[in-house]
Amino acid sequence: MRRALLACLFTALSLGAQPISVALDKPVMSLNPLLLSREVEVQVVDLVFDRLVALDERGEFVPQLLEGWEISKDGCNILLKLRPGLTWQDGTPIEAEDVVATWRLLSLPQVRKINDLVGVRTLDSLVAEGPLRVRIRLKTPRASLLSDLYNFQPVPRRHYGPGAGDLKHPLNHAPIGSGPYRVQPGAHATDIQLHLWDGYRGSHPGRWSAFRFRVQPQDKAEYGRQLRAREYHFGELDWFRHYLLRRGAFGDGSLIAQSTPLASFNTFWFNCNPERSLLGDVRLRRALAEALPWEFLKGQRRLRAERLASSLWPPQSWAFDQAVAPLPRAERAGAMLEQAGWRLGPDGVRLDARGRRLHLVMFAAWGYSGRDHADAFCEALRKVGVEIDLRRTPVDEPFIMSTKGVGDIWDYAWNTGLDPDNESPLFSSDGIASGSNVTGYRNPVMDRLFEQGRHELDPVRRRNIYLRINEGIQNDRPVLQLTYGVAYLVRDRRLRGIGFNMLGQTYGYVPGRRGWWLEGS
Fold first, then answer.
1. How do the pLDDT tens digits run along the chain, 521 residues long?
2. CA–CA distance, 405 with 441 (Å, rounded to integer)
3. Which of 157, 182, 153, 187 is nearest to 170 (CA)?
C-alpha cells in the first residue's frame, strides 16, 4: 500500500512536466517484443511491456507479470502463476493463454530470423491451466530457466498473430503493451513518445509522466548543440567528445559525463560461408586474427576505458575465461597465409594457385574522428598482402549487410545476455537455420556443447562447458574480438535515478528507467 501511495504521489508531482528526452544512436525498427534484434529497441520496449520475471538492483530474479513460480524437485515441472487483475493496454485481461500463444509465435521463421530467443522457444511444453496458471514441462532440467523467463515478454494473443511477425506490421510502432507507459500515436522509427498509463496495476510502476526517444543527428556537431540546448536529457556520446566533456572543454556545465563497462564486445565478424567468401577457409580467418591491431587498440586506452578482449564472454559473465591469451603477431599472419597457399604477387597482393586475388570487402560505420580500429586493421592486412576494400556506411549498415551475407568482414558491437546460452544462436547450426548466425559458422562439436550447457545444473561443470566453447570458437575465428564494450554517456545535471544493471545497461531491471525523474521540473 505504501509503495502504491508513493507511486501516486510521484505521478501527481510529475504530471504536466516535460518528458525525459533520450537520444538513440539508430532508428527503432520495431516495438514488438517478438522482433527485438538490437539494444536500441529494448531501451523503449522495457517501459512498454512487462517481463514474466525482472531483475532487481541486486541482480536477483523477481516476479513481474508473475505472482510467483513453483519448480519441482527434479526441475522438469514448473508452474507459473500470473498476477490477478492485470490487463493489456486495450483493457483486456492478461491471461495464461497469452503466454502460451507468445511462446508459439517465437518459433515462427520470420520471428526467429530477427529475434531468436532460443532458451524460450525450446522449452518442451507450455500449457495454460486456467486463466492465470501456466505449466511448463521439460524433458531435462534447464540451468538457464529463470534467465529464459526474464527474456520472455508476452504479447496479447488477440492482436499478435503470424502477421505480427513482420517489421512492416502497424503494431511495430503502435504496440499494445502491459507496462506502465503507452506509446503515443504518431510514433515512428526516429521519434517515439511514451506517456504514463493510468491503467497499470503491475508491480513496477513508472515515476515520471512521459519519455521521448529520438534518434540523434548523425552530424556530431549538431548533436552537441542539441545536448547543450537541453533538447536531450540522456544519451550516448562518442568517446572523443566524452573525453572533452570530462576535461571541461565541451558543454557549459549543464552536462555530466558518465561511463560504465558493458557486457559486450566490439568485434569484426567474418563471413564463414565458403559459397560467399574466401573466409570460409578457417586458415584465412586464423591468419587475419594475427593481424589484429592490438597496439593501436592498447594505445587508445589513454583516452578510453576499453580493454582488449580475449574471451567470448565479457568479465561481467560467470563464463568469462580469465586465461591470458597470447598477443597476435603480424609476422605470423604472412607465414600462415603462405601455408594456406596464398603467395605474394608482383603488386604485393596475394594470389592462390587458381590465380584468385586475396581481395576482401569490409563494412564499417563512419568513424567519429580520425583513424579508428577499422582503418588500423585494414592497414595491417595490406602489409601482409591482403587487398581490402573498406566501405564506410551509416551506423546500422554493417549489421544489415551481415544479415544478407554481403561482404567478407563486418565491424559492429554485440551485447551479450544474462546467460551465455543467449549467444548460442550466433554460433550454432540452429542459428544458421534461423538466420541469427550471420557468419554462417558451423561446428557440430560447438552445437553439442551449447546443448549440454543449457541443461547442465552443476555450476562448475557448466562453466567448464562454456570455457570449452570459448576455446573452440577462438580457434575457429568466426569473429575477431577487439575490446570489451564501454558505454560513453552524457546526462543532464537535473536527471536523477540513473543506475546500471549487471550488464552495464540503464534498463532491463527495476526500477531502472522506471525510476528516473527530473529534479526541479
1. 344 444 444 444 444 589 999 999 989 999 999 998 888 999 999 999 999 999 998 889 999 999 999 999 999 999 999 999 999 999 999 999 999 999 999 998 888 888 888 889 989 999 999 999 999 999 999 999 999 999 999 999 999 887 666 667 888 899 999 999 999 999 999 999 999 999 999 999 999 999 999 999 988 889 989 999 999 999 999 888 888 899 888 878 899 999 999 999 999 999 999 999 999 999 999 999 999 998 888 877 666 767 889 899 999 999 999 988 888 999 999 999 999 999 999 999 999 999 999 999 999 998 766 789 999 999 999 999 999 999 999 888 999 999 999 999 999 999 999 999 999 999 999 999 888 899 999 999 999 999 999 999 999 999 999 999 999 999 999 999 999 999 999 999 999 999 999 999 999 999 999 999 999 86
2. 12
3. 187
User: Please, are residues 7 and 208 in contact by the beta-carbon 8 Å criterion?
Assistant: no
Which residue do the cell numbers 531491471 mark? 509
* Alpha carbon of residue 266 to chain centroid: 12
Q: For the chain, what is the radius of gyration of the CA atoms? A: 24
Measuring CA to CA, which residue among 498, 520, 492 is closest to residue 229? Answer: 492
- The bridge status of strand 20-24 relative to strand 210-215 is parallel
Q: How far is CA 162 from the centre of its chain?
A: 24
CB burial string 119-157: b at 16+ within 10 A, e below? bbbbbeebebeeebebebebeebbbbbbbbbbbbbbbbb
Task: Identify residue 184 by its one-letter amino acid code.
Answer: Q
- DSSP 3-state of 257: strand
Grid cell in block for residue 164: 505480427
CB 473 within 8 A of CB 427: yes
Phi, psi of 261 (to 5 degrees): -65, 140
d(CA 130, CA 31): 29
Query: Which amino acid is located at 15 in the chain?
Result: L
- Which domains occur in the chain, in start order? 2-214+494-518 (3.40.190.10), 262-485 (3.10.105.10)
Number of helices and strands in the chain (H, E) = 16, 20
Let me know: does 273 contact 478? Beta carbons within 8 Å: no
Prediction pTM value: 0.88
Q: Note whether 43 and 22 are within 8 A (CB).
A: yes
Which residue matches cell numbers 495464461? 96
Supply 153's cell numbers: 515478454
What number of other Cβ atoms are within 10 A of residue 420's Cβ? Answer: 25
Q: What is the three-class DSSP state of 478?
A: coil
The pairing of beta strand 133-137 with beta strand 125-128? antiparallel
Prior bond of 511 cis (ω within 30°): yes
Helix 330-339 vs helix 373-383: crossing angle, to nearest 10? 50
